[in-house]
Design a protein that fits this description.
This protein is of the alpha/beta class. The chain has 2 domains: about 25-70 and about 210-240, no CATH class; about 75-205, Rossmann fold (3-Layer(aba) Sandwich). About 30% of the residues lie in helices and about 25% in strands. A hairpin with a 3-residue loop joins β11 (about 190) and β12 (about 195-205). It is globular and about 60 Å long.
Length: about 240
């Protein structure tokens, strides 16, 4: 049996996606993210001496854990492994093939391309323009679209994407599922006002703590400062090194 945990970075980066044929565990996915430098978790053990920084999410909640998909998915074999894992989970649900599949930008753009290729369906191109999700591909009315995301916490980005797409192309049928690598927020589904409910289909569930900004334990108890980890490379450096 293939053992992910314990692999060196070199071994992970040379891992053949075709050799990973079983569902991965949460510990294995997090281990891979840690080894490639894509995972950060707040260090409570040194918090009183080194309060450091913590993550401010898109939802404006604060969190003690964060994974940067740009780092994790920059390696083609790992990206393919994660795409294969999403497809495994989707097939386990008995999902009928959509007409199109696409990843919500920017984090899941290439992931969505891989999932579409594995499923054998058309790729839906999306991009961000001035903070809005734009569905570049003109999808015929009545055709179905499966949306993929790297991670899900509160579903904020997914809701925005669905509403932007339905505003621009209202006759597109968005499949009532969201495929993600890690569900870190504990949600089972996402309610999009005026559209419907979308079940979260994740490779793994890995819970991290999060709080409303005015009730954040890390701010109130330790004096840690919130920053958006993905906003700049400097922010990621700060949040990952401040407690070392």
């Amino acid at each position: 049996m293939l053992k992910i945990i314990g692999m060196t970075l070199e071994e992970l980066l040379n891992l053949n996606p075709d050799d990973v044929v079983r569902p991965l565990t949460a510990d294995e996915v997090v281990y891979m993210a840690e080894r490639v430098g894509a995972f950060w978790k707040y260090n409570y053990a040194v918090a009183k001496e080194k309060p450091g920084y913590h993550a401010r999410l898109k939802s404006e909640w604060h969190s003690d854990g964060f994974i940067v998909s740009k780092i994790l998915l920059q390696f083609p074999n790992i990206k393919r492994i994660m795409a294969n894992q999403i497809v495994l989970q989707l097939k386990a649900q008995g999902l009928s093939l959509p007409d199109y599949a696409g990843g919500i930008p920017d984090g899941a753009t290439q992931l969505g391309e891989d999932v579409a290729e594995i499923l054998g369906v058309k790729k839906a191109e999306m991009r961000k323009e001035e903070g809005r999700i734009v569905l570049v591909t003109l999808i015929p009315p009545g055709s179905s679209l499966l949306l993929l995301e790297d991670f899900c916490t509160k579903g904020t980005g997914f809701c925005e994407a669905v509403l932007f797409i339905k505003t621009a192309q209202p006759e597109v049928i968005i499949v009532p599922y969201e495929g993600v690598i890690i569900n870190r927020g504990g949600l089972k589904s996402i309610e999009v006002e005026g559209v419907g409910s979308f079940e979260i289909i994740s490779v793994v569930d890995y819970r991290v703590n999060d709080w409303p900004s005015d009730k954040c334990r890390l701010c109130l108890e330790f004096g840690s400062r919130p920053i958006k980890p993905k906003e700049t490379e400097e922010n990621w450096r700060l949040i990952t090194t401040a407690q070392l």
